[in-house]
Amino acid sequence: MAHGFVTTFVFVVAVLKEASSGDRKQKSSLEAGATSHGYPDWNRGNEGTAWWLPQLLRHKYLVMLACSGIEFVPRQAWGARPPKEWERLKVQPVPRVFVHHTAGGECFDTWTCSEKMRYIQHYHQVTKGWEDIAYSFLIGGDGRVYVARGWDAVGAHTKGHNKDALSMAFFGDFSRHLPTPWAMKTLDRLLQCGVALGKISTDYTLHGHRDATCTLSPGDTLYAFISRWGRFRGRLQTYTC
């Protein structure tokens, strides 16, 4: 109980400090009707912090809640090379998310998954000639999320949708079995986190890689499983081989 109180207290103090700083730096823009701190327009006039602090606290709390429980492994931690080029997504928040599998071996710890990340990046950059590893994120069998291109970059994952979608891939071949329960739970959490961060649209649709182009990805068993999720919409009208 004491630990939870301290965590909440520290969180509120941090937001109050941001609020105080934001008032000093952004008072003129708020009075002009601009958005505050990059969040939705909560302008109500000239009342200062008093009117938007509750909304800011609520927004930050919802983001913290949605993204808690996800262990991200950043690029530098798994030993990523720099991208050859970097391009921002044309649409944000993205209207759709694609689920992939790598069709290779599975991994269940940070060391092995990081090794696979480096191999996949090398294959995509050197053999394929792409700018970077294709996907937005990869999910290990232990439930960790390995940051590939991340939330904001154009990918090389889904033909026709690299500039308006995100990709979440699982290490392994899931034609005959599902990823681990931890990995599947992480996919759900990652989707919720993306919505809370404003990276994924609140009315996004979910698809398998095969819904956009002729491929076996993400495997028959995994595809059948996600097809029962509420946001799943199946084959796209833009399907092509």
UniProtKB/TrEMBL annotation:
<keyword id="KW-0391">Immunity</keyword>
<feature type="domain" description="Peptidoglycan recognition protein family">
    <location>
        <begin position="70"/>
        <end position="213"/>
    </location>
</feature>
<dbReference type="GO" id="GO:0008270">
    <property type="term" value="F:zinc ion binding"/>
</dbReference>
<dbReference type="GO" id="GO:0008745">
    <property type="term" value="F:N-acetylmuramoyl-L-alanine amidase activity"/>
</dbReference>
<dbReference type="InterPro" id="IPR015510">
    <property type="entry name" value="PGRP"/>
</dbReference>
<keyword id="KW-0399">Innate immunity</keyword>
<dbReference type="InterPro" id="IPR036505">
    <property type="entry name" value="Amidase/PGRP_sf"/>
</dbReference>
<protein>
    <submittedName>
        <fullName>Putative peptidoglycan recognition protein logous to bacteriophage t3 lysozyme</fullName>
    </submittedName>
</protein>
<dbReference type="InterPro" id="IPR006619">
    <property type="entry name" value="PGRP_domain_met/bac"/>
</dbReference>
<dbReference type="GO" id="GO:0009253">
    <property type="term" value="P:peptidoglycan catabolic process"/>
</dbReference>
<feature type="domain" description="N-acetylmuramoyl-L-alanine amidase">
    <location>
        <begin position="86"/>
        <end position="219"/>
    </location>
</feature>
<feature type="signal peptide">
    <location>
        <begin position="1"/>
        <end position="21"/>
    </location>
</feature>
<dbReference type="InterPro" id="IPR002502">
    <property type="entry name" value="Amidase_domain"/>
</dbReference>
<dbReference type="GO" id="GO:0045087">
    <property type="term" value="P:innate immune response"/>
</dbReference>
<dbReference type="Pfam" id="PF01510">
    <property type="entry name" value="Amidase_2"/>
</dbReference>
<keyword id="KW-0732">Signal</keyword>
<comment type="similarity">
    <text>Belongs to the N-acetylmuramoyl-L-alanine amidase 2 family.</text>
</comment>
